[in-house]
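Notebook B, p. 112. Complex prediction, attempt 2.
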Amino acid sequence: MREYKIVVLGSGGVGKSALTVQFVQCIFVEKYDPTIEDSYRKQVEVDGQQCMLEILDTAGTEQFTAMRDLYMKNGQGFVLVYSITAQSTFNDLQDLREQILRVKDTEDVPMVLVGNKCDLEEERVVGKDLGKSLANQFNCTFMETSAKAKINVNDIFYDLVRQINKKSPEKKQKQKKKSLCTLL
Amino acid sequence: MVTIGRLANIKHILQKELFDLNDERLISVCTVTKTYKKKKACYLCLSTSVHPNSLKTVVFSQVKPTEKDAEYKRKHSFQLDEIKLVDGKDENFETHEFDIQIDKMYKYYAINLHERQNFMGVLYRQINKSVRGEKAVFKNIPIAWLTEKTSPEKSIVKSETEGKVDTEDELDEDDAEDFKALTEKEVNELNKLVNECDFAIKDAELFIEQLGKKLHDLDGANIQSVLASEKQVFSLVEEIEKAVGEVEKFETRLDTYDDILNHVKESMEKVGSKNAMIEIANNNNTKLLNELNGMISQLDLPLSAQQALSDPDLKTASGRQAAINAGKALQQAMNSDIDPALLRLTAVQDQRKRFEKWKLKFSATISRYLNNLFIHLGNDIGEGSTQTQTHDLNLQSHTHVHKELAAYTDLMHWTKSMDRKTYDGLTKVYTSSLSKIYERDIKAFFANALHQIMSRIRASREDLLDTSTSRKVSAVKVTVPYGTLGASRDIWASNVESADREKFDATLEKVLAELEPVALQEQLFCINFFQLDVLSPTGKNTQTTLDPNPEEKLSVSEADPNFSDFLNSSQFPQKKIDRQINEEVRKMMIALFGILEPELINFIQSFEKLDSFYTLYVLVRLTQHVMSAQDTHSFLSMTFASALVHVKRNFDRFMQQQVQSIVECKLPKKSKCGILPYVENFEDFAMTSENIFKKTERRADMDKWYLQIVHKIFEYIAAHSNDHPKTPSQVIKMENYHHMFSLLSQLKVPGLDSAKKDAKARYNDSLKAYVTKYFGRPLEKLNLFFEGVQQKVAQGVKETEISYQMAFSKQELRKVISQYPAKEVKKGLENLFKKVDKHLCEEENLLQVVWRAMQEEFIAQYNYLEERIQKCYAGAMITLEFNINDILNFFSDIAKSH
């Protein structure tokens, strides 16, 4: 089974852990506890193929920014999360993306831009069109989600898996099969 | 004479017949025919209204006699201002024709020449008198007629009497309005005149003659007076001519003056423009002077400063001050704001070259001096600190280094803004020499901390090793991950010395607390000394600095894209600038304290190897430091944060090991299974963790793992319960779930509430299952008997008729009942008790509970049978050979006897 290393990034308090836990355990965590680092594993079926997702839920608070380089180096796909109720969280993503591209040294990195907390429509400050245009600029997928209302949560990760598949189709298996055949 | 008479006649007639009707007075009349049409005569009249209320207006009208000559009718009537032109055709008196242009040209032929003259005169006067604005033009008419006041008409009156002339004249001159009514005086005059010529009435002809004569005399006198005035006129003309001559002279003089003035004006203008030019030139000169003065004062460097620059004395405070001042003066001079055009001046260029030389020399001196100083300080302190290794755990701060260097702060700032290369070089030297010190300090510090904790732990362990040999075994096994849930109780309990852990926690806190001020102090010093809080160089020394290739400067800023970004757009938010500054500061701090992070992680790991529970302490302790930090992006915060991530990973790994150890746990090879090791260890584990986490910020992390571990325990209690050779699985489950339940109730972790409920349910289930299986049905045959009864009832046999069935007769029932005498029942129960006692372990002490559950079960069965007997065999007086009280006694007797 192929493994997918997914890293969830974004400013503090945007709901990275809430999204991840909702996806992995189908629970909405109401309480806010700043994450240090949590890693989860979950097996899912995407397009008829079993995948093992290894999701790294990272710290959003500023002290931990030094770790980002490492996360970016190891990750295959990235979820960039902001909260539609806080403009600054949206603004921070530009730097984050630049950092990813710098670390990966390529323009084409599987990535999903996520505007979380879309259930809090009355507190919205970041318009949907703003998110869309940023995604356009990033050349990546965009979705507004709600970990609380379970909107688009699974789609984030499925989309990322598809992006990773598209960017680097699995070759190892074929080679293994071939070698097996020759052995036989 | 006849004509005059006729005219007067006509005038009289017209006045009477026509104008009186309209309250008008006829002033003058002229009998005319239309030119070229010798037709009937008509009359041109000038009349004025005499109505007292109406305005006095003079009207020009043409009156025509009707065919019968008896009446007169006005044909045309015009206001005088309508008349545009009166043309007399010829100045000759004999001319009869004249034209009057009003709305069109009217051409007339005057029958009487006197009438014509008179009419023209009166018309002219009336027009001049009453018309305002454009007046009619009179041409080809003798001027005399128009100026002459006396008309022939009046002369008639004059000729009659000299005395009346005045009044008549006055009257006419004055106004025609009062003409009609003669005043009393006039009447008198007239009477007088008539009286003088009393003959007149009798002889009109004589009267006329006399009047004509008088008129003639008067005419003569008039001409005479006119002729007499000729001389005077001549002299007057002469005077006038003289005056004209004078005026001409005067004019020529004025002309010459004018010429002169013109000339003066011209020259004045020239002078004026010249003056303006001079002023401009003057202004320019002043400006130039100011500019030059400014430039020179800016570029001038005092001699003392020059000396200080070329040979600075950096050792003494006064020398330093002089050097700093000189440096500042040079910087100011080099950064002076001079117009780019002026920079081309050779003098400026030369001065700049000189500046550059001084700068290079000064900067080289500073560089050399500070370089040596840094290295010297680095070596010096290094030696000093190694000697003073105290037992107190503290990290030496290097305030005296900072103090010593603080004197050079200004010089450093100067270097930063003036000579970036030297600045960078000096920064490197500083960090490399200071980092050596810090590396040594930190290493020693951690070693010291490690030593302190280890010595304590070792000491306490050695005590234990001496006293009990069994501990030796466990001490050897320290290499195996220690403190996992799945480990057997012996290993688990070994080495546990909460005092050690607390000591470690305290030491860790001390380590972290010691690091903070030192790092903070160094950071502050660096920011201040290297001016890290200012992004751009303080001076924009592009102006006068001789930059042979300005591209070099560009490349410097390009090298750091963020930096150039910042320079290019000043609208960058403060946040970004702050971040940039923080980045710079952090870079420097990393260079200085590069050793800190690996050392810290190393330190922590060395304890984790010993006892993974230390990880929990570190997690909590470090989180406190990281999350409470105010400067979230400072070097230390981020270093601690990175370490924290490592610790968190270790923590997760440790917890994962716990889960794994449950899976891999082996059952104790005892006759009684009892409480499984992980369930037993969980108590200790949870207590320890709770003690560490209590209400700290990382509770959530621990709770997450609690849930996972508890669920794993539940899962594996069920799985392992089947593996024990002797103890039945129900007992294992019952005992362990019960243990978990009581433990969770004791812990009161809110996140585990549902797990607690789960444990209770599982415990109850397994208790029931155990009772059902092992208590079974001690009155088996009775139970079977009544099962048969129930079958029959189900087939439709009435409960009251059951006793008539062969197999279920009263006899049969009695036979079955007799098989269960009280003694036998008690014996069976005793055996059962022994069996249960063998199954259950002492730790959990569930025997009483189980026994009571069995008693209740037995009573329930008994009650059921009794009820059945009452229903189906009512009145047969059949009962079991023992009652409920007997049962209760059996149970309590058996329980008491053991």
